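Same chain as my last thread, 170 residues:
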Amino acid sequence: MKKIIRFIIKVFKYLYRETILHLLWYFSSYFPMFPTLMFTKGRSFFWRLIGVQIGKKVQINYGNYLDVPSAKRLIIEDNVLIASECLFLLHKRDMSKYTGFNLQNSLPMKEAYIKICKNASIGMRTVILPGVTIGEGAVVGANSLVVKDIPPYTIAVGNPARVIKYIKKN
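reply #2:
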């Protein structure tokens, strides 16, 4: 009887992680009705449900993708704006163990946090890799690839993203 109960619990956890959380993310990312509501409060609410740590007054536009099972590793502070179709990668392969003879799929995963600090803005179709912090008041331009930390009060663009301007803090 205990084995059956443990099996049922495992199945429920799997379904929760792989189905229910993905459904919540999908619904919040691509829900076509009430776009203003979903932009201002709806997506933040659903992203909190799947485990993302989100501050106040965060605006998330449609079509953003994240590693749903690793959502707890995404930290978004207050007053952040995230444009459409951004990609937040919260894991990567440990390439230090790659020999050239083994498949990349067989390599272990390294998981890392992404932190977006207060008042930051992320441009459309930006890709943010694991282990990155985007500083307070920073702006990341559209189609950028963020591979390392972006300092506070800067504008960064490009592939890979690099700082092109420092913003004077008022």
